[in-house]
TrEMBL record, chain A:
This is ABC transporter permease subunit. It is a multi-pass membrane protein. Gene3D superfamilies: MetI-like. The lineage of its organism: Bacteria, Pseudomonadati, Pseudomonadota, Gammaproteobacteria, Alteromonadales. One of its GO terms (biological process) is transmembrane transport. InterPro entries: ABC_perm_TupB-like, MetI-like, MetI-like_sf. It comes from the Bacteria. GO terms for cellular component: plasma membrane. Keywords: Membrane, Transmembrane, Transmembrane helix, Transport. It is found in: Cell membrane. The chain crosses the membrane at residues 35-54, 61-85, 105-127, 157-182, 202-223. Belongs to the binding-protein-dependent transport system permease family. Residues 27-223 form the ABC transmembrane type-1 domain.
Amino acid sequence: MSDGWLALLQQAFSLLLSFDPHVWAIINISFSVSFAALLITIFPSIMLGFILAFSHFRGRWVVLNLVQTLQSIPTVVIGLLVYLLLTRNGALGDLKWLFTQKGMILGQMLICAPVLIALSQAAFASVDRRAWETSRTLGASWLRAVWTLCRELRGPLLLAIIAAFSRILTEVGCSMMVGGNIMNVTRNIPTAIALETSKGDFAQAIALGLVLLILAIVLNFILGSLRGKALPRSH
Amino acid sequence: MFSQSVLANEVIKLATTTSTENSGLLGALLPKFEAESGYSVQVIATGTGKALKLASQGDVDVVMTHAPEAEAKFVADGYGIEPRGIMENDFIVLGPKNDPAAVKSSKDATEAFSKIAHKPSKFVSRGDNSGTHMKELAIWKDASVTPDFNGYTSVGQGMGKTLLMANEFQAYTLADRGTYIAYKTKLDLNISFEGGAELANPYQIMLINPTKYPDLNHKGARALSDWFISPATQTLINNYKVQGEQLFKATYKK
């Protein structure tokens, strides 16, 4: 009965490698929800990052500081906010999005947007403005010139995207509150780990934890190699 | 400060269920026990499944749960000894005020459940291996229903959160009366069905077999178990009220 560590690990690996449908359904939900949130958020966030870096409207510093602060807001606070919006008597109660994947996506969008905006702003701010001015004087449209910049900055921007993605893929607070951990619907990797641990079934929790761990290692390797490339070239 | 052995003997680790903790019963009782005996009790409140698991791994000194079948197995497997029934409360079937599955007129809980399944209506299940979840599964089994009908939602949450979710979905759910009373003001749900032997919810306290884990605080565990069955404590249990309602009925019989 006293589960040895090795036995638990063995069970965990066999759950993953035998493609246990329960475990893979959870992994699938986790990735599809977080990808959706990321895809919806990427474009507007990077645009905002660009605007914050290149334009000089009044109150720009206030917005920038706000965004940077929001990067570190606890996800449970975002969860609470979205919960109150979506609850039956909340402002958006008629949408009936509470405890659905749509609600989870909304929460995760709010979590990853500040990370994307702040990091892309930093990337745009680091670039030589002459690149922008050159492409504009060569007659490139505004959008086209931004695109050129983005290609120039693909390293740091990809870094921003990965940082945002890993934050929403691993957060438990907002998913638990807004998604509600419903089996086969809104149960994702972090909420499933929380549940299995509270049940005392550690094998599945470890299997899912391994998925996150492997993912973290892969993402970190990508980040590491990007950082290497993204460093400013020495004189 | 203290030597480890003295300190270890003064602490009793009690694994129990969220319902006893959430209802405030332990908060009302345990300080009295601590004052009388000099022990200090550390409560680990979790679902019945995990409480029994902690006990069978020797992580706690004593366990108090409410799932007769799981408890019988715990004793039969040689982990638990001297199970004592100390009190009971009851489960209730909650549902939307308009009672779409018309369960009000059911003769027992089994009929109520099969009406919900055949309608089919929304039903929110705790799905966390807690005592309440085990009870729910037992009723589905008696009703010969496989709980996978359209509208059956397994949420893997504690009782309080499950009630809030059932309220959002305007769904039926099975709850212990204590948590329901504590959440009543937040809910737009009615008691759709109550009463009958099936919905009784007996609590047992069990000691852990000293031959399996000799180094636990067996003396303290026994003191706590004895204190729970004393006439004075049984009276305290009967007198414990939340919002003017008695939550638990003391049941210890010599």
